[in-house]
């Protein structure tokens, strides 16, 4: 973004920008009213206006989020000289959540549970503000993943010359594929359909991309940012995504995993149906599918070392993951 375009955008706001620094996909700005973040926006205006309302509702609930700054015309979306749209957000003086810091991880879980409670409290207001798209059907998604795995296995089997990476896929394929079938069956036997219907009808939202990059740690508080993927979906999916990412980075350390679950439930108790969905999604071999699918859709003449290392790590972690799932299942039955 050139200086001329920046100036044209900044002039449309009341607050004077004293300094700006390029950051990942945005411009970090210093102003007399604190730190702001300027980002290019190419989405739907209706979606943006709804997000603005939701974030303001959450702020009223005491939840720290990156709310939008309106320009001189009272609009969220600001156009530059060539018609490109930008948004300005209230931002924070802090850093991303450290996934290797157990206390920060647990604090992030508490923040997520509070966010979910806030979403529930404002659900009626959200419903009044208009509809919000939901995520794809989980069962269809897993079913599609299973088909992709089988397609990739057929391809590997038919290759005359196989690499060690491809032999590893074949060697461990049945184990991971069965895990996928097990997870899919759990969802089929659960109250998934009814829950999905209720979530939509009640207007309950989830963040949609809750990870360490969207959790800002400051001196006094933890803030949640980047709600671009917010949607009507099971809130347990936010927790699943965060829990799985952390567990993968920590070799499925059982004590940490159960501490995260306990920390979440201190703020918001899970219903039995949510526990089933969480267990089913954790049972699915997401990482194995992702690696194999990336291989199948990529340049098979050159297999990246990164994929080789990732597959070896997934295989290495599998025993610890299954032990975690066994204990989790036992706790659910108690």
Quick structural summary:
With 334 residues, the protein is an alpha+beta fold. It contains 12 helices and 11 strands.
What distinguishing features does this structure have?
about 325 residues; 3-stranded antiparallel β-sheet; alpha+beta; about 55% helix; globular
Helix content: 55-70%
Q: Give average pLDDT, whole number.
A: 92
Q: What's the total number of strands? A: 11
Main sheet summary: 6 strands, antiparallel
The CA-CA distance between the termini, in Å, is 57 Å
Radius of gyration (Å)? 22 Å
Unreliable parts: none
SSE pattern: HEEEHEEEEHHHHHEEEEHHHHH
- Continuous helix count: 12
Which strand-content bin applies to the residues?
A: 5-15%
Structural class: alpha+beta
| Approximate shape | globular
Kindly describe this structure:
This protein is of the alpha+beta class. 57% of the residues lie in helices and 13% in strands. It is built from 12 helices and 11 strands. The strands form 3 sheets. Strands 1, 2, 3, 4, 5 and 6 form a 6-stranded antiparallel sheet that branches. A 3-stranded antiparallel sheet has the order 7-9-10, covered by helices on one side. Strands 8-11 form a two-stranded antiparallel sheet. β1 and β2 (26-31) form a beta hairpin.
């Amino acid at each position: 973004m050139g200086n001329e375009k920046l100036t044209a955008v900044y002039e449309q706001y009341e607050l004077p920008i004293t300094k700006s620094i390029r950051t990942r996909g945005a411009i970090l700005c210093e102003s007399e009213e604190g730190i702001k973040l300027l980002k290019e926006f190419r989405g739907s205006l209706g979606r943006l206006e709804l997000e603005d309302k939701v974030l303001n509702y959450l702020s009223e609930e005491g939840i720290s989020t990156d709310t939008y700054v309106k320009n001189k015309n009272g609009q969220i979306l600001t156009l530059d000289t060539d018609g490109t749209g930008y948004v300005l957000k209230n931002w924070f003086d802090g850093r991303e959540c450290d996934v290797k810091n157990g206390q920060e991880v647990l604090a992030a879980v508490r923040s997520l549970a509070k966010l979910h409670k806030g979403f529930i409290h404002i659900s009626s207001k959200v419903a009044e503000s208009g509809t919000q798209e939901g995520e794809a059907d989980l069962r269809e998604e897993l079913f599609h993943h299973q088909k992709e795995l089988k397609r990739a296995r057929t391809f590997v089997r038919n290759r005359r010359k196989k690499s060690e990476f491809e032999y590893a896929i074949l060697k461990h394929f049945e184990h991971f594929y069965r895990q996928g079938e097990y997870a899919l069956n759990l969802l089929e036997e659960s109250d998934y359909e009814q829950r999905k219907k209720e979530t939509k009808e009640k207007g309950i939202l989830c963040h949609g991309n809750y990870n360490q990059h969207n959790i800002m740690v400051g001196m006094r508080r933890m803030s949640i940012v980047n709600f671009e993927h917010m949607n009507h979906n099971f809130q347990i999916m936010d927790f699943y995504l965060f829990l799985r990412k952390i567990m993968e980075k920590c070799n499925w350390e059982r004590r940490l995993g159960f501490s995260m679950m306990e920390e979440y439930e201190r703020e918001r108790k899970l219903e039995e149906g949510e526990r089933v969905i969480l267990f089913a999604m954790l049972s699915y071999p997401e990482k194995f599918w992702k690696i194999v699918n990336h291989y199948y859709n990529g340049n098979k003449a050159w297999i990246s070392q990164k994929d080789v290392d990732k597959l070896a790590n997934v295989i290495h972690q599998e025993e610890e993951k299954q032990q975690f799932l066994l204990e989790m299942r036992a706790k659910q039955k108690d």
